[in-house]
Amino acid sequence: MAKKQTSNNSPVETANSIMTKNKRTDLGNRLQQYPTVKEQVANFIFDAEDELATAFERFSAKQLMRWSNPKLSGLDRNSLTMDLFMTEGQVAGEGIIRTLTIRHWLRLHFFCAL
Question: Taking the model in full, what pTM does it have?
Answer without folding.
Answer: 0.57
